[in-house]
Fold each of these.
Amino acid sequence: MGEKKTVLVTGGSRGIGKEVALKYAENGYNIVINYVSSNTDVEELKKEFEQKGAEALILKADVTNTQEVENVVNKAIEKFGTIDVLVNNAGITKDNLLMRMTEEEFDKVININLKGTYVVTKAVIKYMMKKRCGSIINLSSVVGVAGNAGQCNYSASKAGIIGFTKSLAKELSSRNIRVNAVAPGFIQTDMTSVLSDSVKENINSQIPLKRMGSPREVANVIYFLGNDDSSYITGQVINVDGGMVM
Ligand code: NAP
């Protein structure tokens, strides 16, 4: 048997990121995740991955902080010797109509979602380039493709991620590193749990499949993009949205 593969999922403590990490754990990968909030129960989280038979390295690191991110990457390489798949998942929303949006709300969302993707990717690709293989999956959103009132900051960050993905796919193709983006629609996580029932009903009525998606439905596509089953796919944006945007 060959060397075990390793995935780094940013923001893997909750929601889509956690489900992605669990999917990789079930498929024999070593897991590296980071989180930012101080109330994360690291030991409990570690157990969940161990129950799937995976070793997990779980570290607190803000994706906007280069030093903290480099620490995660260095520790991952020390422990597992490789990072084969990177999933840039960490992200936040700070919704407001532009008329009311503060500079802080704008900057925070761009920094975590877009700059964070740059910081983590830059720290990881040197190892992938040396190995001449790897797969990077960035979390965009249908809102980055189609726009959404009240989310100028968020949709700009997610549209930025699409440009970043396509440019990097062109830069790294000669090194056999693939870079793709996934654009989820409305997925049941803490991020969307703040929406009222009437807003959710209204959204569901506009989705051809008439329901929100589950984190597992996004994780399945991210897992596909990370492994050799998708070996001829790079620079693409795959919507996982029940047909919301087509
Ligand atoms: P979530 O449940 O709110 O989880 C967000 C994750 O990101 C948490 O693990 C959080 O860590 C981490 N995080 C936030 N800021 C961070 C930072 N500065 N540094 C490191 N980690 C940080 O979100 P989600 O719904 O799973 O969304 C995951 C990704 O999918 C995001 O990029 C989001 O924009 C995208 N997406 C989601 C939806 C949706 O409907 N849910 C739709 C389209 C796209 P802590 O636990 O420590 O706070």
Amino acid sequence: MRIAVVGAGYVGLVTAACFAELENDVVCVDIDKEKIKNLNSNIVPIYEPGLEEFVARNKERQKLKFTDDLRKAIAKSEIVFICVGTPPKENGEADLSYVEGVARAIAEVMSSYKVIVEKSTVPVETGEKVAKAIKSYNSHNVDFDVVSNPEFLREGSAVKDFMQPDRIVVGCESERAKQIMAELYKPLKAPIIFTDIKSAEIIKHASNSFLATKISFINAIANICELAGADVGKVAEGMGYDKRISRAFLNAGIGYGGFCFPKDAEAFIRIAEKFGYDFKLLKSVQEINKAQRKHFVNKIEKALWVVKGKTIAILGLSFKPDTDDMRFAPSIDIINQLQSEGAKIKAYDPAAMEKAKSVLRDITYCNNPYEAAKDADALAIVTEWNEFKNLDFKKIKSLMKHPLIVDGRDIYNPESLKKEGFAYISIGRKDVF
Ligand code: UDX
Ligand code: UDX
């Protein structure tokens, strides 16, 4: 099929490359000319396993093209995916101005039937607004359908999540659009759930909010475990065997970040409010998540007694491993809080340092964990990159001023670090000195 994907960000680029891999003819459009220029020179602006290969291969065989000419791309396509940003406004609501702009552009150039697919995470009722926007600018009065097809891609595994989805959700109101979407997704051989548009839009917000709720729940349990002298890792393991609960998303730590959970939970709270429902549960999820970062900083302060003038090595800056994304990363709050207490920060991250430099200043960026650990009074684990799991602890201990590790992601075994001569503090477990 002939597809236009509008927005070459974390979602749009993966969507375009994967549909091209599935033998469709895809044009990916972006307003950012620099981004398009780079993509046309095979420079992929985001770090996603498997994405570079898909982009290169499908450009090579002419199944994937990049342009900044929105109208031309839309005119040549039968399906248009809207994957532009929906960033939070001041009041937490999703800013839909980019979505509206694309809808207007589609209406102005449309001269034959099209399926317009909203893939960006949007509040319920956006589908109706997109349809209204197209109708009011649709000078040729051409037939079209709007479809909601939310994405469930996790950063760091987005290509895999696209090509092997648990489910595909399609919200549409016409048989014609349903047939086209069924045909498009047929090669993936995954369960497709067809719903009305509003339900599809809510499935996305409800799914992300539920996952965020699981995380804040286990972090609340971690706080209780710390006070009771229990081990949250064991609790999560014991809970996880219950298939109704499942072990996934029960990793206690410094909480969630990224461009989706914080933004989507906030937007969902606002949407509910607009309908007259006070989403107290989700507000508590957000509060617990925010408090977890402060709790982690308090642990460092308690262990060091005085933070002012001390050197703290931070391992991991991205909001999670296997990505370079710094958006809403917990490391930003944690480092800002430590710097406001007068700490000197050294940091290392395998992928996110370039992006971190534009949001975190007055930091010594190091080339590896050992350089960061040198002369540090404390070593703090903020993102659980695999390479931090097998450090040479004898070397780390010899480099540090003070053998103290504060683990925000519980990646180490307390007893083995104690044997290595470290004071070790983690989340939801007993401290060992
Ligand atoms: C986007 C949505 O913001 C998010 O809500 C949804 O869950 C997934 O899609 P993401 O792809 O991470 O998330 O956004 P971002 O990385 O900001 O990429 C958006 C792209 O759209 C940018 O490259 C931007 O240049 C482009 N864009 C934005 C346009 O091409 N036209 C516009 O009018 C606005
Ligand atoms: C999430 C959803 O998983 C995905 O379905 C949706 O499309 C986009 O948002 P993403 O934000 O990329 O994906 O990453 P995810 O792996 O879900 O982690 C989100 C945050 O939760 C990260 O900061 C991670 O560190 C944190 N997390 C995750 C925990 O703190 N504990 C967990 O057990 C799992």
